[in-house]
Amino acid sequence: MGRLFIKVIIIIIAALLLFIPANNFVKDSYDYNINRDILAFKKNPHPVDIINLGASHSMYGYYFKPTGLSHLDLALPAQTVQYDFKLLKEYGKHLKPDGVVIISISQMTFANFEILDIGNYYEILDHSEIEPFRLLDYYRYMYFPGANGESVNAALSGTLKSYRWDSHKPWANNGKSYAERKYEHVEAQYRQATKKNYVEQNVKQLRKMLEYCKEQGYQVILTMEPVHQTYQEHFDEDVMNRLVFQYLDTLEIDAPFLNYMNDPRFADNKGLFLDSDHLNSEGRKKYSWIVYEDLKKLGYF
Amino acid sequence: MTFISIEFLLFFAAIVFTYYGIPHRWRWVLLLAASYSFYASLSSYFVLLLLASTVFTYFTGMLIEKQETKKQKKKAMLLGICVLLFFLGWFKYFNFVNDSVRALSTYLNWNYAVPYQEIVLPVAISFYTFQAVSYLVDIYKGKQKAERHYGYFSIYFAFFPQLVAGPIERAKKLLPQFKVEQTLNYENLSYGMKRIAWGFFKKTLIADRLAPIVAGVYDSPDPTGSQIVLATILFSIQLYADFSALSDIAIGCTRMLGIKLTENFKQPHFAVSIGDFWNRWHITLSNWLRDYIFVPLCKGKKKRSEIYVAIVITFLVSGIWHGAAWTFVLWGLIHGFYRVFGDHTKHARGRMASFIRLDKSPSLHKWVKIAITFLLVCFSRVFFRSDSVAAAFENARLFLTFSSWKPSGIVEAAEMFSLLDLVIFGFFFVIMQVFHYIERKNASTWTWLSQRPAFARVAVYILIVVSILVFGVSGEGFIYGGF
C-alpha cells in the first residue's frame, strides 16, 4: 500500500509542477484579466462623468480620455442586462451628479442569457450578487484558472491569434465570413432565448434598471455602436426589428436613443474596426468624440 | 453533484477512507447513506420514489418466493412488474403517449381533452426499474433467492456509482459482493483510480469538447449535408466517450471498494456487424433485453419469421427505453431491421465477398465490415440525436445524399471547430485510439502498461492527469444520465 501512496504522491507532484506554468500562462492572459480596468477603479475609486454598460461592442466602443471626461467602462464580453444592472448598483455611486449612464444596446441584448465567464465578476461584485456562487469554482478561478479548460482555450486563442482557419479570420472574404458566422450565432442564441423565455426576462431587467436610474437621478442614454457594412448586411432593418426594436418599443423609454449602428462615418472604413462589429482603438476614439459631441448637443455636460 | 466534479471526488475519497476504516458489519450503512445522499444531490424530490420502489420490490421479492405454485409465483411477479412499470410509465411515458393520442385524435377529428402534464423525469428511474424487474424475474425463475437483509437489498437498488447510468447489474452478481468483507487491496485501489482517471479523460477531453459542435449543427435550422455527416460521426464518438466514461468511473469507483461491476463496452465502433455491435455496446442493457424480452418472446418459436418478429420487438423496447419520443422508436426499429436484414442476408453477403475475392484478404474484409457497421450505426444515430421526427427524416435525407460526403464539403464543415480546438481534440482522440489499439492487441491496456518501465508508466499517468486538469472541459451531465 505504501508503494501506491508513493506513486500517487509522485504523480500529483509532477502533475502540479507541470501545471504551474500552465496556470501562470492563463493568469497572465488578456482574457483572464479582462476586468482589470474595473478592478483598478475599485481599488482607486473616484467620481466619474460617464459610465458605460453593455457587452463587447460597448467594451471596445468607448474611450473618453481625449474629451477630458472621466469614464468608467463597466462593459464586459457577453455581459447580460442582469449583470449590467448589478454592476451599476455597485459602481453607480461614483457617478457625478450631472454624469451620464450609457446603456449599450446590441443585437444580442435581449437574446443574451449566458455569462461567458462568471469568474470575471468574482472580484468586482459582491459574492451575494453572483448567481450561482460556488466556493470551489471561486477558488479554482482565483488560484487555479489553469484548471479551467475554457480559460486555457481562451488564453491559447489569444496567444495564437493567427492560428485560425482563413474563414475564421476577421477580415477574410472582406469580413463576410465572420459576419455570417456571427449572424448565425446570434440567431441560434435568439432561438434559444425565445424558447426559454429569456427575452422576456431581459426586457424586465432592462425596465428595472431604467427605473433604478430614475430613482437614483442618473441621466441615461441608450446607444448602439457602429458596425461595418458587412455586418449590416446581415442585421438589416427587419432583423433588427425582430431581435431588438420590437422589445425596446414595449419599454416606452424616456431617454435619448443614439443609434450609430449604420453610421456612414464608420460603415465602410475597415481601418476603424478590429472585426466587423468591434471598433479598434482608432475607431473607439473617433466614436467616443462623436458621442461626446452629440451628448453636448443634447444638453449633457 | 455529478461524477465530473471536485465535489464528487472529495465525496468518494471520504467514502473510501471511511469504508476501509469501519468494521464490515457497518459498511452497508455507509454505502446506503452515501447512495441516498448522492441521489438526493441529483434529484432530492424523488428520493421517496426510490425508497418506495425499493420497499415495494423488496417485499414483492419475498412474496414471490413464499408462493407455493408456479402459477401463484407468476401472478405475484407480474403484479410486481406491472407496478414498477407503472411508475416508469407515468414519469417517463405519460406525455409521450398523451401527445401521440392527441395528435392522432386531431388527425381523426376525435375529441381528446387530456392536457399536457408537467412531469419531471426522476433521475435513473429507467436503470433501477430494469434492475428491479430482473430481480423479480430471477426470483420467479428460482435463479435468485429473495434478499432478506433490507440494507443490502437497498444498496443493490441504489448503489451510487452505478445508479445514474448503469451498468445494469443482476442481484446475483452484486449482492454477494456487498456481503463479502472487502480488504484494502493495492490492485483494486490502483486499478480503480486508473479507470476513474480514464473516464474523466474521455468525458472532459473528448465528449464534452465535441458536445457544442454537435449541438451547433443539430440545433441549427438549416445545416448543410456535410455538416450533418460530420456532426453525426462526431456524435457517435461523443456518445461513446460520454457513456463509456460513465461506465469507467462507475467501474473504477466500485473497484476501489473491492466490488467488480460488469464491463459495459468493448470498443463498439470496431464491431464487424450489427450483432457484434450490440455485443460490445451497452452490454448490460443488451444482455438484459436478451434475457428478459427476447428469450421469453422466442419461447416455443421455431420459425425464422417468428424469431425476426421477436428481434424487432426487442429493439423496439430498447428504443422506447432510451427515450420517450418517436425518434427513439424509429432508432430502435432501424436497429431491429439491421439485425433481421443482417441475419437474412448473411450467406448471400458471404457469397458476394467470395465473388469479389474480398475474403482472400481477411484483414481488408474485416475493416470493410467495420466501416460499414460504423456507418450504419451512425445513420441510426441521426434519429437518436434529432429533436423531432420531421427533423430526423430531413437529417437522414442529408446524411444519405451523395454530395454530402464530398471531401471538400467535409473539410469545410470541419471549420465548425476553431483550428485550435480541432488540434486539441485531434491530439486526445489519437491518444484514445492508441489506447484502444493496445487493448485490441492485448487483453488490457492497463496490464500492458503495468509491464512497461516505471518511468513510462508514471509519464502516462501524469499525461492523463495534466491533460484533464488543463484541457478538460465540463459540460452539462451525461447523455445517458437523462434516460
TrEMBL record, chain A:
Top-level taxon of origin: Bacteria
Entry protein name: SGNH/GDSL hydrolase family protein
TrEMBL record, chain B:
Example of a GO cellular component annotation carried by this entry: plasma membrane
Chief location: membrane
Keywords assigned by UniProt, alphabetized: Acyltransferase, Cell membrane, Membrane, Transferase, Transmembrane, Transmembrane helix
GO molecular function: acyltransferase activity
Subcellular location, record wording: Cell membrane
Membrane topology annotation: Multi-pass membrane protein
Family: Belongs to the membrane-bound acyltransferase family.
PANTHER family named among the record's database cross-references: ACYLTRANSFERASE, PROTEIN-CYSTEINE N-PALMITOYLTRANSFERASE RASP
Name the record gives this protein: D-alanyl-lipoteichoic acid acyltransferase DltB (MBOAT superfamily)
Species this chain originates from: Planococcus koreensis
Lineage of producing organism: Bacteria, Bacillati, Bacillota, Bacilli, Bacillales
